[in-house]
Please model this.
Amino acid sequence: MFHSTHLLAQGAAAAAALPQAAADAGPTASTPQLVIAAVAGIAVIITLIVWLKMHPFLALVLGSGVLALVAGIGVTDTFTSFTTGLGTTVAGVGVLIALGSIIGKLLIDSGGADRIVDTILDKTPARRLPWAMALIAFVVGIPLFFEVGVVLLIPVVMIVARRMRANPVLVGIPALAGLSALHGLVPPHPGPLLAIDALGANLGLTLGLGLLVAVPTVIVAGPLLAIPLTRWVRLAPPTTVLGVPDGAGAADGVVRPAATAGLRKPSFGMSVLVVLLPVLLMLARSVVEIAGATGTTYGTALEFLGEPLVALLITSLFALFAFGTAVGRTRQQLGDLVGSSFAPIAGILLIVGAGGGFKQTLVDSGVGDVIASGIADAGITPLLAGWMVAALIRIATGSATVATITAAGIMAPLAAGLEPTQAALLVLAIGAGSVFLSHVNDAGFWLVKEYFGMTVGQTFKTWSLMESVLSVVALVVVLVLGAFV
Model:
């Protein structure tokens, strides 16, 4: 209780200083005008995405322009803050996303992801397979974007359900829970990275706490929740895997990509090492910083190696060897593979960059200060407020990334007064809110519906419910940690 009160006092103290800071650095607009500006900007974004089906990049650009104009920023400077924020965000986050994409592409195309999946499944009794699927999703979900992870694991889910002659929901929900939790809570996924950048949180500390929050969250929203869901939604065991009938293609029913033909498959140990290497390096940096050993020789070395850019760069280079040269790929093949890894993230980088621009417009106009001050005056703790804002934007837009971007921009002024641990927990609270209640305006909803062959109603009872439970459980764990750390 003391920690919760202390956290609220920190937020209130920070908010008390916000109006003066805004007056010193931002435009001289009244508080009602700034509130109207925030509502107008967010309303434009939601309207364009939900009703006009506009791409989030364009919606964020236009929403930023409306916010700036209503807040009283001069016409000629309407997009000055936006372009500044876009450039800063891409410089800080975009490179990390690109490096993560390289690692994920190499992991998949080399067969390393298959090796992790096959090894875990081969050593797991049938009754433990839902737990094994959660573990697989947790491991391979660290470097992979959510959509990539779904495409990779759905064939495995169907294979396992066919082997067990079981409802695919039993093993599918744990896999989806693992991927979704990592997507919302753990860097180097775009949402957490952007929130860390916007709130000035420590990446290594957020990574460590994110993994700590993700473990119980996945357990509850995955294997445990899957049991009652199989009773509510009864699906027959699959007889095909993505349209491939029994006995067709490979022995397990999956047609493997030609990219791995004639290549040696990397070992299980090497595959797991590549996945966990950036995590270990960044966590080591955080341990050194917390221990106050940054002035020592080994501390300086670990601080450098654990710098996010350095950690992911080292892992990318190591992956080029482990998943490239070591398995028989030529230098030309590796170059082509790395080049092909960038195309899928172009849209993500644009959305993330535009989100950074929207955040900077919120900050420079003084809107973020006013909203943060109002949250503090209302007596809502920053952690709960961050979750609520992200959850509302998520429900409205269907985009976890847009929800994270908007909530981080609104909560940024409050984060300036928080201790490093609390700032990291605020990132996680926003991430938890960003995955709440996926429904018909979310592409992930339809992706899961079609892969599992469910009706809209069945998808609400399984996928949407799982996302909501995952979000709430993650918030509860974050609040518990916030009360003790």
About this structure: The beta strands are 240-241, 244-245. The longest helix spans residues 80-109. The radius of gyration is 23 Å.
